[in-house]
Design brief:
The chain has a domain of 98 residues. The protein is built from eight helices and no strands. The longest helix is centred in the last third of the chain and has 27 residues. This is DUF2059 domain-containing protein. It comes from Mucilaginibacter psychrotolerans. Keywords: Signal.
Length: 153
């Protein structure tokens, strides 16, 4: 019974999504790809993955970190790399922005300020991730207690 309800829900959500997904023109898609290249999204994407893997491996024993990163890099290259996801990312941008907006974004990313943002973005992401990690570590005992209480039953 639960499976049937879940199936109906998934089919309903898929139908609603299909009705609300805007039509993307080839020109919009091309403009979205241009935004991704102008913003150096490929470099930022790769840097973000590297940062996440370093942080995820940080909690492992030292002798397991290299192997963990090796396995995760292999997995990422297969399923989550820039080359695998770039077309889907461009389609996401094309669904959210008009062709003109995309052209304006690309122009911004090619401006001095846009270039500076692209240059600084990986370091800002890394610092932001470290900030989040520090916040969790600073309150880890509270989080563990909350989880224990939530899963008592």
């Amino acid at each position: 019974m639960k499976f049937k309800l879940l199936l109906v829900f998934v089919l309903f959500c898929t139908a609603v999504k299909a009705q609300t997904t805007p039509t993307v023109t080839p020109a919009q898609l091309k403009a979205a790809e241009d935004v991704l290249m102008a913003s150096k999204a490929d470099v930022q994407f790769t840097a973000g993955i590297t940062t996440m893997l370093k942080q995820a491996s940080g909690s492992l024993p030292e002798e397991k970190r290299a192997k963990f990163i090796e396995v995760m890099n292999s997995f990422v290259a297969k399923y989550i790399s820039w080359d695998v996801l770039k077309d889907q990312l461009a389609a996401m941008y094309a669904q959210e922005f008009t062709e003109q907006e995309l052209k304006n974004l690309a122009a911004f990313y090619r401006s001095p300020l846009g270039l500076k943002l692209s240059e600084k973005q990986p370091a800002l992401m890394q610092k932001g991730a470290a900030l989040g990690q520090q916040a969790v570590q600073g309150h880890q005992a509270e989080l563990q207690q909350m989880m224990q209480e939530a899963f008592k039953e």
